Amino acid sequence: MAAPASTQTVDLIARFPGMVTADTRPGFTGFIVNKENLLEVAVAIRDEFGYDLLTAVTGVDYLAENKMEVVYHAFKTTGGAGLIFRVQVERVDPIEVPSLTGIWPGADFQEREAWDLLGIKFTGHPDLRRILMWEGYEGHPLRKDWKEAFYEEEVKPFKSRWPDGQHIYSEFKNPFRDNLNFPKDFDPEKYEPENEKDLYASLENHTLKGEGGLKTDQIVVNMGPHHPSTHGVLRVAVTLEGETIMGLKPVMGYLHRNHDKIGERNTYLQTIPYTDRLDYFNSMSNNFGYVTTVEKLMNIPVAERAEYIRVIMAELSRIQNHLIFIGMLMNDLGTMYTPSLYVFEERELILDIFEAVSGARMMCNYYRFGGVVRDIPDDILQRIKDLVVERIPAKTDEMERFLNDNEILVGRLKGVHLINAEDAIKYSITGPVLRAAGVPYDLRRADPYSIYDRFDFDVAVRYNGDMMDNYLIRFDEIRQSLRIIEQALKQIPQGPINSQKPAYQVRVPAGEAYGRIESPKGELAFYVVSNGKPNPYRYHVRPASFVNLTAIEHICRGAKIQDFVALLAMLDIVMGELDR
Amino acid sequence: MENEKLSLPNYNIPEDIQNVVAITTLDRLYNWGRRSSVWPLMFGLACCAIEMIAAQTARYDMARFGMEVMRPTPRQADMMLVSGTVTKKMLPAIIRLYNQMPEPKYVVAMGACASSGGPFKEGYNVVAGIDKFLPVDVYIPGCPPTPQALIAGMIKLQEKIDKQSIKTVRWYDKNKADSNYVPMPILGPDLIDVRRNAEYKKAAATQTTQESA
Amino acid sequence: MYGKGILKSLKVTWDRFWDTYTEDISWWLRGKKRYNSAEGIAHRSSKDTRGIFTVQYPEEQLLLAEEMRYVPFLVYDEAADGKKEVRCTSCGICAKVCPPQCIWIVRTNDPVTNRPVPVPTDFYIDMDICMNCGFCAEYCPFDAIKMDHDFDIAAYERSVYNLEKLLKPASYYAGIRPENAAREDEARRVKEAAKAAKAEAAATTPAA
Ligand code: SF4
Ligand code: SF4
Ligand code: SF4
Predict the structure, then answer these.
(1) The CATH number of the domain where A279 resides is what?
(2) Helices H / strands E in chain B, number of each
(3) Facing residues of B83 across strands?
(4) Regions in chain A scoring below 50 on pLDDT
């Protein structure tokens, strides 16, 4: 691995005098780039400095300073720390920032999200529509001066709960009731919904045109939002010519639960259980990512035993995620139920452990700042050991034996191209999909967090980038996770499980932190800006599913519609994380 | 036995005790048939859906209750298991599915979100409970309800089905036909529930600022 | 070879079928109950499970882990005269820490002095908002609110629990979480003993 380069070694200021300044706010790092020079600087960052992976694009609304900021986090796929650069613009509509989609196509969805939720217009973006809310929605919800229908107070805890907390249903408080909020003098009868036109227009614009030859009709097919194999409430509008996908636009937001907005109102602690509900298969990993981020901000150590417990839990979570991936992939390929019944059996056994340790099967809420909630008793460690040493290896072997040379599976997967390494990096894809394309980029190695540097494991990587590799790499990762857990079980020391005293209010100094972990689906990162108050000023999740899905259009154009479901399954998206 | 009388809605019970017996037996048969084959709509919204899937798998095995046949089409489904957060963006699709389901149909709100918006209730894109739009038969609290809790809720639904009588159910009553049709909400500047247009108009005309609530 | 995959997969199903019966017979031979017994269920949830995996709820129930949490409830101690001594002092910490803010507490004020007295007049938890996170139980300083194991709470209408509905006796708590209850009782006893000793010391010092 390349030596981690800190942001300071990159001297953007010397390279671009007058265009770039250092960010000097306490607790902040990185560079502020002039809006006019953004594109030029970004190209240099990618090509000269080698930060080829733009992972996160997000906006922050500094209402008091009357500024809107767009923060970019770029990393090297060879590993090491990242480069933060940002653009600040006056907070007067229209707020315009040049789009980076030309340099990193992976910025596409994230810029659309920033437009949707913060109202930042990215000039030059090929398809700037709302992404999570629908077209025609009033306002940009993440702006600090925008208030939702159930708005009670700026921050939790609400004063109406205690000491005189008479229960009321909050839906009875809004003048419109039921969580609604309309502009003044709104007349529902005269309203004309317009929200689908833009979608089809954009689909039309981004559709491949048939080449000469036969004149064929193109038809538009909508899949979802209620569709059994879109892994939740995703909708995809597809233009077909015969069976070939000519254009495709995913439509999401059907599970947009306003995670960021709620997170900004919560205290730091209160957000932990909300992160459970991001990628609901892997609440342990989500907790992990969030607490590491806040610990970074708070600058506190983690209890030694807790580190091991965290790793064990996160890896168990990865195992069950990949097991489900395999089961659900089979569902999508048409072997309804049978394989997924078997994988769910193993998953249940892992969930039993989660329940015994944390109290819940899915929504574990197990990590705390500085450690974990409670210790794992020895008998449960023994149970984990039994599972990891005996049961799961045997079962994964069994699964591979039965599935890997199944002719239908091989026929459907082998040689069907998903994405190659170059494109995967361009589209900011992370996780198993990137590794199956031949890029050995795994944050546990590339930018080690927690105690992953103490374990001996290999980064699973395969080189063909076809669906078969994407499928097999999941098994490889399960094996590596098992290795990690085995070592962790051997090394786990006795001791306290939290370096801090249990407290429901934590002190977080002002500043920003970008914490990322290798979640089973890719890079899960949290971007938290604190202003020293008990609630974060800005809380943003950079979900792996969402960013990975950016490439779906690129992946699917020209593919056959029959393969679409499998291609989508390979990205292993989960709607809770995608829409947040 | 006067079979034609059986389907008479306004039929006088005290006069003819035997027919009552016939009705109750028929009810039992009718309800037994329905309770043991409640086919859910294959439909998952959020995290709760995963527990719903888990409840279908080997360990909990909803097939024991005749509920394993998840129908992807609403036309063949008896029950809508609203398993997860109902967002405003998703709501029109849910209502459309519901309207497409043939009677008898049941709605079960699984989990906190479906019942009342749950932890995300305060969110701007979340509907504060599917019961604002659909008649919910059973609410299952929990976040997520464990598969066993889901089955417990399903047993509650079966109990409810058991109590119904063929004489009074809404779907054989001519006057009540289509009483469960829910008009489609519209996605406007915010969600528009067309049943309450007048209310909105009035409130919108009188409101001073957006957040006067 | 075409068709081999099908045969192989069918074999898995067959093995499962076979295992179920061989296990049944072996349990029967050993004179043990495989179904409707804690031992049988525990075995079916262990790494050695073979054959049938189903736990036939509601006839049998999974063995819930002690830490398992569903919805919160309030603990009361039974006084000698059968009165309910609510542990909650309405300090409001749970209401403050609750992430979705689904706890409503009405603190009691002394009718004469108008000073707060440490009992709640009413206590509401909206079970349809509660996200089962367990924070309330974790941060309550008086062990007054705990997470329940009872998940069979589906209802025909919305569930907003009030004080009366939330209260459950300490013995129930000790029943579902024996280890936790014992540990907390012990800690409280130690604390009270220390307090008593301190009070005693304070009472004796001025005299000395
Ligand atoms: S109730 Fe909880 S588990 Fe269910 S959908 Fe809502 S947040 Fe997810
Ligand atoms: S339950 Fe506990 S935390 Fe909540 S008000 Fe009562 S004593 Fe305080
Ligand atoms: S379990 Fe969590 S959400 Fe439920 S009442 Fe307690 S603190 Fe609130």
Answers:
(1) 1.10.645.10
(2) 7, 5
(3) B110
(4) 1-8
Residue entry with tokens 């079928």: C17
| Burial class of B182 by CB neighbour count within 10 A (0 to 12, 13 to 18, 19+) | middle
The mean predicted confidence, pLDDT, of chain C is 85
Please indicate, yes or no, if residue A178 is contained in any of the structural domains: no
What is the CA(A304)–ligand 3 centre distance, in A?
Answer: 29
Report the CATH fold assignment for C72-198.
Answer: Alpha-Beta Plaits (3.30.70)
Q: Is B149 on the interface with C (CB under 8 A)?
A: yes
Please report whether residue A264 resides in a domain.
Answer: yes
Q: For residue B128, which phi and psi values (nearest 5 degrees)? A: -80, 60
Residue A85's CB is within 10 A of a number of other CB atoms, namely 24
Best of C133, C148, C159 to mutate for ligand 3, by most ligand atoms within 8 A of CB? C133
Q: Which of residues 102-161 of A touch B (CB under 8 A)?
A: 132-134, 136-138, 141, 147-152
The H or E element spanning position A368 is: strand A367-368
The full set of domain ranges for chain C reads 1-63, 72-198
Query: What's the pLDDT at A3?
Result: 39
pLDDT in tens, C49-103: 888 888 888 888 888 888 888 889 988 888 888 788 888 888 888 888 999 888 8
Give which of A150, A245, A90 is closest to A567, Cα–Cα: A245
Best residue of B68, B127, B151 to probe chain C, by most C CBs closer than 10 Å = B151
Q: Does A395 touch chain B (CB under 8 A)?
A: no
Interface of B with C in 80-119 (CB under 8 A): 112, 115-119
Do A289 and A526 contact (CB within 8 A), yes or no? yes
Residue having the nearest C-alpha atom to atom 6 of ligand 1: B113
Distance A456 CA to ligand 1 centre (A): 37
- Calpha distance B5→B3 (Å, rounded): 5
Q: Residue A13: which CATH number?
A: 3.30.460.80
Residue A263: CB atoms within 10 A of its CB come to 23
Which domain-ending residue is among A94, A123, A152? A123
**Cα–ligand 1 centroid distance for A173 (angstroms):** 23
User: Does residue A391 contact residue A346 with C-beta atoms inside 8 Å?
Assistant: yes
Q: Touching check for B74 and chain C: CB below 8 Å?
A: no
ipTM: 0.89
A333 falls within a domain: yes
Query: Is A416 inside any structural domain?
Result: yes
CA distance C104 to A167: 6
Q: Length of chain C, please?
A: 208
Q: Which of A123, A155, A178 is the last residue of a domain?
A: A123
Query: Which atom of ligand 3 lies at the shortest distance from residue C131's CA?
Result: 3
Q: How close, in Å, is residue A181 to chain C by CA atoms?
A: 21
Report the domain count for chain A. Answer: 2
| Closest Cα in chain A, distance from residue C82 (Å) | 28
Give which of C99, C98, C75 is closest to C88, Cα–Cα.
C75
Do A191 and B188 make contact, defined as CB atoms within 8 angstroms?
yes
Sheet of C160-161: strand order equals C103-109, C116-126, C160-161
Residues belonging to chain B: 213
Decide: C113 and C87 in contact? Cβ < 8 Å: no
Question: Given a cut of 70, is residue B207 above it in pLDDT?
Answer: no
Which amino acid is it at C36? N
Instruction: At A574, list the tokens.
Output: 């989960």
Measured from the CA of B48, which atom of ligand 1 is nearest? 4
Q: Is A38 helix (H, G, I), strand (E, B) or coil?
A: helix
Tens of pLDDT, residue by residue over A209-257, are: 666 556 667 788 888 777 766 677 888 888 888 788 888 888 888 888 8
Ligand 2 first shell, C-beta below 6 A: C 88-94, 105, 140, 142, 144-145
| A305/chain C closest Cα distance in angstroms | 20
Residue numbers of the domain that contains A116: 4-123
Q: Which chains touch B (3 or more CB pairs under 8 A)?
A: A, C
